[in-house]
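User: Structure please.
Assistant: Input sequence and predicted structure:
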Amino acid sequence: MRTLRTPEERFANLPDFPYEPHYAEVADGLRMAYVETGPADGQPVVLLHGEPSWSFLYRHVLPELAAAGLRAIAVDLVGFGRSDKPADLADHTYARHVEWTRALLLDALGLGGMTIVGQDWGGLIGLRIAAEHPESVARIVAANTGLPTGDIPMPDVWHRFRDAVLKAPVLDIARLVQAGCRSELPEEVRAAYDAPFPDESYKAGPRAMPGLVPITPADPAAPANRAAWQILTTLDRPFLVAFSDSDPITGGMAPILLKTMRGAAGLQHPVIKGAGHFLQEDAGAELGRQIALFVTST
């Protein structure tokens, strides 16, 4: 597998993101990156981003968790942020992304009693890890995400997004993030989303991910996701549904999760106001406060 590594100088002068990167090998020289803040002995809260962002997305969430005495860990998925980038689309599979992330959290970091927070693809990966390794998970937060099995059609807006990503001669990462926000992103923030990708050769991850979402029952990832649903719906771990009020892509998943997840019963589930798909951008501090309240009260 041919991999690329973004030069560190690309990440100079990131706004509101002073965290030193940490690295761990997860498979045959493949390196994943993460940042963390808060007390080292605090309860671990793992923050998983989605397409096409990176841990920078959580820059306004991290301080809220640290202030609550939690150990906040924001991960860069393989192909994103400071993590290594397999250069061919075929190198990216759903199963590999689950295994790479599992290897970081459980093997390299040895986390137990963790709260997994997943948004977008972070949920598709994090929910699988929670289902397959419940002994290491204390709580789950689903924020604008889901666990598709291909049995329910995806919305038209998602299919348009998928086609645009696959066919665009030049993939404008910052523009994709901006399209999922209600607020206007400053130039320095847009530049931070472009930073991991010096040129098109680095973008196999963002190009591949939409095509890995199961959209038919026969998809290779569908059986594992169905099995994960069966486990998650009976799991007794507290399950917070923290969706925004303006996400056309995943908004329909919120009532399904609230109805089906055993761990969601009896909890107060926030609706993050005035936020789009990337609710961490539009209302990151509020999301952080809601996660902190959930962790410290359950």
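The mean pLDDT is 96.
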